[in-house]
Amino acid sequence: MKHFLWSICFSLFLTLPVLADPLSVEYFSKRDEFSAVKVSPEGDYVSAITDKGGKNVLAIFDRETFNVIHAVYFDGKAQVGNYYWVNKDRVVVMKEYISGIRDEPLYYGEMLAVNADGSKVKNIISYKSPDSTGTRVKKTKGLMGTSFMLDPLLHDKKHILVSVYPWASIKEPFTEVFRVNVYNGRRKQVTRAPARMATYLTDNEGEVRFAASSTDYIEQDLYIRNTKSGDWSKLDQFDGQLNNITPYAFDETNENVFATANKDNGTKALYKIDLATANYELISQDKTVSPSNIWLNEGDKSLYAVEYEPGYPTYEFVDKNSPMTKSLKGLLQALPGYQVRIISSTLDGKVNVIWAGNDRTPGEYYVYDKNRGKLDHLLSARSWIDPDKMAEAKPIQFTARDGLTIHGYLTLPQGKEDKNLPLVVMPHGGPHGVRDWWSFDPTAQMLANNGIAVLQVNFRGSGGYGTDFEHAGHRRWGEEVQYDIIDGVKYLVAQGTADKDNLCILGGSFGGYSALQSAIIEPDMFKCSVGEFGIYSLPMMFTEGDVQQRASGVKYLKTVLGEDESQLKAFSPVFHIDKLKAPVLLIHGAKDKRAPIEHAEALIKAFEKHNHDYEYFELEAAGHGIYSNKDRAKHYQKVLDFIKQHLDT
Fold first, then answer.
1. Mean pLDDT per 10-residue run, the chain (649 residues)?
2. Whether residue 22 has a cis bond before it, omega within 30° of 0
3. What distance in Å separates the CA atoms of residue 519 and residue 515, rounded to the nearest whole number?
4. Which residues contact 113 (CB under 8 A, 6 or more apart)?
């Protein structure tokens, strides 16, 4: 099969604009105005999540007039979460709660169905008994578990499939699948998972066929279901051949599956796998990065493109005859300089919602009508963002001290020559399975708007660069991973881009850990360090936080951290504050379950013991990140003030 590789072309800016006065932090900290934009299955409506009074609302518009038909809004502390069109007129909405004691919303598995015009409202899934009328009507029992949409079954006007994580005494239950009526909430169990915490894939007929389960968040077991008997059997034909198999779609025969997988520990590739014979065919692979997205036609679930992001994004069109392929190629030409995605389509594929974004644009939404040959602008994710005032982010690569090639992104401030710039290095979280991308990053843009260059490094251990690259970061959090971050800074200093005497480091979660650990390894490199929502004691990860609460989480920690107590302490900032010179801004959420407040408290105790210069900013309602616009603005201002206090900008 021949493949067509489509690369997005990007313009070069040959003149330097004059640097204007910095914009307010609220300009960057505010959440998206619109998100999750979709078109209904037959194209009568478009919909989007927007904000009203600090809560999410689902707005439904007439596609022709763009008049608001209805808005789904919950009273009290509830708000709209995700949502799905399930037939031409009806949506299913996931109901979240803003608790008041926690910043981020909580989801308990409740789903509400409603018509586009606001009629026929029904709580179809709840841990309580859904409402019913009349004494003779048998009530549907509450579903004691957290439910997620598995398949909206767009060719079945009355039913959906949901996967349910039962609330059980064990932390890792056997998930279940139910077929649910979207008008009355009646449900019937379809299957129970063959292994704990399984996820599922349905075929083109909406039959549950695949299940995947992991005992350590790294390797997973696959199971195939016989749709006649309902029995599950383990797929082990690929042992030693393909690893980390993730199925995405069936082909038109329903006998072969398209899946990404690793072979020989390289980058993930897309394969077509014959389920009867276990034979497989390579469909698409990039030698540098694994696929970032697998794109399917919503109407028939057919796969048409693979997206890669080695630096700038590219597409490989694996089905050159697909109407979606032809549409996307035309859209890429119509919107040069943008990463373009078809994010929602009608069943016949004739009407598409398009997302277009880049390093200076958070996202613009368009409606493309094939019959009319028209591309109309619909909404902006952040309408107040002026791309002309934003900074360019460009891919870079350098060689680490041990010869490994490392990729990253450099955001450069406007109006300044790219020479001897103040620099903030901003390591990402994770660290495994996560990476930075070429995209609009509000923190990087805020710093660049204040004259500061920003370096983001996809250090070893990051996701997306192959098994060997990711595993190279296992048990090396405190040394080689940090060396990659440090070597990236040294590379920019050697290139003359960054001023060696004007450097800071900022990160959240694992990035917060790196902000302290890198500054300990290179005590004379950084003028300041900002750690947000970080983990600072590796031994504590085995006793505190939500990861260690599950058996699979403990296995994961043993794999990526190891169990050598002396090494865990050697890699833990809390035990080495005596080596640290940079003043620290420490930011933490009091309700953080992933990196609990005990990490910050232990670090503060170490600061006090060694009389180290630090500032502490605690967000009482925040968890592992910041949700509210008010707290985000406070956080951004605190970070910016601290960095500008220590850098010459």
1. 37 46 95 96 97 93 96 94 97 88 78 97 87 51 91 96 86 90 97 91 95 79 92 79 90 94 91 90 96 94 96 96 95 96 96 98 97 94 97 98 98 95 97 96 98 98 95 96 98 98 97 98 98 94 86 88 95 97 94 89 96 92 82 94 96
2. no
3. 6
4. 86, 90, 91, 92, 93, 120, 121, 122, 124, 182, 183, 185
Q: What are phi and psi of 238, to 5 degrees?
A: -100, 5
Spatial contact of 320 and 312, defined as CB atoms under 8 Å apart: no
**pLDDT of 100:** 52
Q: How many residues does the chain have?
A: 649
- For residue 142, give the nearest of 159, 175, 164, 160 by alpha carbon: 164
Amino acid at 459: F
CB atoms under 10 Å from CB of 56, counted, come to 24
Residue from 100, 200, 102 nearest 148 by CA:
200
Structural tokens at position 118: 């606001």
| Cβ atoms < 10 Å from Cβ of 3 | 14
End-to-end CA distance of the chain: 54
- Token pair of 258, please? 């398209």
Strands (E) located in 309-439? 314-317, 339-345, 351-358, 361-369, 374-380, 392-399, 405-412, 421-425
Question: For 340, which DSSP code?
Answer: E
Name the token pair of 2. 């021949």
Over residues 77-97, the pLDDT tens digits come to 899 999 999 999 999 999 999
The residue among 437, 439, 493, 438 whose CA lies nearest residue 462 is 437
Phi, psi for residue 332 in degrees, rounded to 5: -60, -35
Tokens matching residue 72: 């789904």
DSSP state of 324: H
Quick one: tokens of 416?
A: 């300044």
Q: Measure the CA–CA gap between 332 and 324, rounded to whole angstroms.
A: 12
Q: Which residues contact 138 (CB under 8 A, 6 or more apart)?
A: 132
CATH code, 391-542+583-646: 3.40.50.1820
Domain parsing of the chain, residue ranges: 1-30+320-389, 34-147, 391-542+583-646
Name the token pair of 144: 């004691």
Bridge partners (DSSP) listed for residue 46: 39, 61
User: CA-CA distance, 498 to 423, in Å (whole number)?
Assistant: 6
Q: Is 320 exposed, middle or buried (0-12, 13-18, 19+ CB in 10 A)?
A: middle
Residue 328, token pair as written in the block: 């996307």
The 3-state secondary structure of 287-311 reads CCCCCCEEEECCCCCCEEEEEECCC
Q: Tell me which residue has tokens 């190279």.
A: 472
CB-CB contact of 122 with 184 (8 Å) = yes
How far apart are alpha carbons 160 and 49 in whole angstroms? 21
User: Which of 469, 503, 509 has its CA nearest to residue 488?
Assistant: 503
Q: What residues have CB less than 8 Å from 351, skipping those under 6 apart?
A: 39, 43, 63, 345, 367, 368, 369, 370
